[in-house]
Amino acid sequence: MSKAKFKNPVVKWIDHRLPIFSFMDHELNHYPTPKNLNYFWNFGSLAGIALVTMIITGIVLSMNYTAHVDYAFDSVERIMRDVNHGWLIRYIHMNGASFFFIVVYIHIFRGLYYGSYKAPRELLWILGVLILLLMMATAFMGYVLPWGQMSFWGATVITNLFSAIPLVGESIVTWLWGGFSVDNSTLNRFFSLHFVLPFVIVGVVILHLVALHRFGSNNPIGIDVKGSQDTLPFNPYYTIKDLFGLGVFLTIFAAAVFFFPNFMGHPDNYIEANPMVTPAHIVPEWYFLPFYAILRAIPDKLGGVLFMFGSIAVLFVLPWLDRSPVRSSQFRPIFKIFFWILLLDCILLGYLGAMPAEGIYVILSRIATAYYFFHFLVLFPLLPYIEKTKPLPISISEPVLSGGATASAFAAREKK
Amino acid sequence: MYKNLLDFILGYIPKTLTYIFLIFSSSLSYGAGEKLDYPKLDWSFLGLTGTFDRASQQRGLQVYKEVCSGCHGLRLLAYRNLKAIGYNDDEIKAFASENSVDSFNDDGEVVEREARPSDKFVSPYPNEQAARAANGGAYPPDLSLIIKARSDGANYLHALLTGYVDAPAEQKVPDGMYFNKYYPGKLIGMPQPLYEDGVEYADGTKATPDQMAKDVTAFLAWASEPEMEDRKRLGISVILFLLVLTILSYLAMKQIWAPIKNR
């Protein structure tokens, strides 16, 4: 680590003993970042800001929330009605969950498109998938806390999935519930875990950042940084770009919070949980719908559970499933087409997850599920043998310096 | 002029968006359920600058009190909250004192006292069992959140309240059930609540069933979202602030990046 020069004597004194200022200068100020990043690279910092927003609003909410089956629903309504600006805090938290997932899903698909999971960033990617898993667990338990009808029945359906495990399934479910049905002890432990898991996420995010800063960001061309001519210091170039991205994000987020706060929620969750009345359709939050569709597509309960968890598990081994040495889709014409098919497939799965499991929806769910696994398990390993990739540019700075000429144009010029 | 322009820009775009969203979300949530095509009304509280109609809300409170409150509670609302729809402290005190709540005296005996503004609306039944027993097994739901707890709640409630028609010949209506063309399943345990001149409005408005349904819906929409007017007002300031911040950061970004882009 290069020692930075500080003028302030106090900063100097501290930094000599505890080099936090050198560290910040190195990792946030001078940190060399590829100069050709596009707006899709904004979503990492946005995810971090979303996480912090969720933690701050969550802590405030927890000060006014009562984790008890008799009081949970009313305590949330007290937040909405009697706590000063409680409605604002709660709507930020409630919609923040959705926006966190929107940002993270874009972040993940950006990684898929530009091959950001490939060597030497495999661990960076795996830590990211781990964050996704932790987020899903946290979001699921958070949705149970208001103790509405969807909270209760969602919790019942999802925890019951574990009963599919042979021999010990029923015992595991009883253990998860802390009783013989979703009840007060379930609500209490979910509250406890919902509070603590975000801090586990923070820990993994720190590891994610350490792994990121080891080799720096990938970039749209997907070739390694060759030298300082390919990079810019993070500050001010990417701090200002991230600020602009944050402004756009917050504007859209605020529009949802202030004008459509319940659009992404379900009306049934404003009915207090009632174990005696099952809602007509039990639907999870929208960000779980693709996984829910995979779960229901498999006619066997255990099979459905395995495929649902498998859909995340394949992401963990993705760096070794994709055998192509070329990272960016810009130079992989066939991969690029299939990327968009995969994206449409995931959106289709999301739609099907919201539909009842009957008729044409079941058939479509099975086709979409089959494609999802085909894409990762067959297409990824085989494509490099079939696909002829386009020639790669020599360095990042060349196409950028020549006034925005595309990489392929640059490559064509090289051939002459 | 400024207000009109703002209303136009901020009012119509979100209203259109709301409808798109509603269609989209209802198709998402209720793909299989039968489609009940109820009329879409132009409520004053829709849109980015939409507010509640005070007169309509007050008439709605009267409808709730004289018609609905016989069976339906409003337990999340306190009498003091009525200040927000234009009542003063004395009116609220008088309104609350018409109800009584259980309390304890210094000897620990249960006594009844007059309800105060700080009390929640007194529910008509002490518990669900009592409510069911008094209504032939059907449970009249609490109305505190009814508009938020139903998809497209305001239009649904208005349609339901005006949806009592004669049952078609092939439809059997069992004893204690009533035919309502807008209720999912068409058979509802609630008898038709609103009849011509069912209440006598103080402001002289003609109390047609449609008018009463609109008024009580406006009142209950507020009961579901008492923060709505504050929320939208704050939202406009926040978004205007964020737009300025975003534009400034965009210009700053362009300036900082100019030497790199032009090199």
- The averaged pLDDT of chain B comes out at 88
Tell the overall outline of chain B: extended
| Secondary-structure element string of chain A | HHEHHHHHHHEHHHHHHHH
Give the spatial strand order of the biggest sheet of chain A. Answer: 1-2
The structural domain count of chain B equals 2
Key features?
heterodimer, A: 416 residues, mainly alpha, Cytochrome Bc1 Complex, Chain C, two-stranded antiparallel sheet, 17 helices, 2 strands, B: 263 residues, Cytochrome Bc1 Complex, Chain D, domain 2, 2 domains, 7 helices, extended
Describe this structure in words.
The complex is a heterodimer of chains A (416) and B (263). By secondary structure, chain A is an all-alpha fold. Chain A folds into two domains: 36-284, Cytochrome Bc1 Complex, Chain C (Up-down Bundle), CATH 1.20.810; 291-327 and 349-385, no CATH class. In chain A, 65% of the residues lie in helices and 1% in strands. Chain A contains 17 helices and two strands. Chain A has a two-stranded antiparallel sheet. In chain A, helix 5 (86-113) packs across helix 10 and helix 11 crosses helix 15. Chain A is globular. Mean pLDDT of chain A is 93; it is low at 400-416. Chain B has 263 residues and is mostly helical. Chain B has two domains: 1-76 and 138-225, Orthogonal Bundle (Cytochrome Bc1 Complex, Chain D, domain 2), CATH 1.10.760.10; 227-263. Chain B has helices spanning 2-29, 54-66, 89-97, 128-134, 153-161, 209-224, 228-262; strands at residues 100-104, 110-114, 178-179, 187-188. In chain B, the strands form two sheets. Chain B has a two-stranded antiparallel ribbon. Chain B has a two-stranded antiparallel sheet with strand order 3-4. In chain B, a hairpin with a 5-residue loop joins strand 1 and strand 2. In chain B, helix 2 (54-66) crosses helix 6 (209-224). Chain B is extended and about 85 Å long. Chain B starts with a helix and ends with a helix. The A-B interface holds A 35, 74, 77, 80-81, 87-88, 91, 232, 236-237, 240-241, 243-244, 246-248, 250-251, 254-255, 257-263, 266-268, 270-271, 280-281, 283, 286, 351, 354-356, 358, 361, 401 and B 14, 17-18, 21, 25, 28-33, 48, 76, 81, 141, 144-145, 148-151, 153, 184, 224, 226-227, 231-232, 234-236, 238-239, 242-243, 245-246, 249-250, 252-253, 256-257, 260, 263.
